[in-house]
Amino acid sequence: MIIPLLKGLWLTFRTFFTRPVTIQYPEQKMVMYPRFRGLHELTRDEEGKIKCVACELCAAVCPAKCIRVEPAEGPTHKRFPLVYEIDLLRCIFCGFCQEACPYGAIILRENFETASYTRKDLIYNRDKLFHAYQK
Amino acid sequence: MLAYVLIAFVKVLVVFTGMMLIVAYMTLMERKVLGHMQARFGPNRVGPFGLLQPIADGIKLFFKEDIIVPHANRLIYIFAPTVIVITALVSYAVIPFGDSFTILGQKVDLVVADVNVGLLYLFAISSLGVYGVVMGGWASNNKYSLLGAIRSSAQMISYELPLGLSVIGVLMITESLSTVQIVEAQSKVWFIVYQPLGFIIYLISAVAECSRTPFDLTECENELVAGYQTEYSSMKFALYYLAEYAHILVVSSLAVTLFFGGWHGWILPPVICFLIKIFVFIFFFIWVRATFPRFRYDQLMKFGWKVLFPLALLNIMITAVVIVLGS
Question: Number of structural domains, chain A?
Answer without folding.
Answer: 1
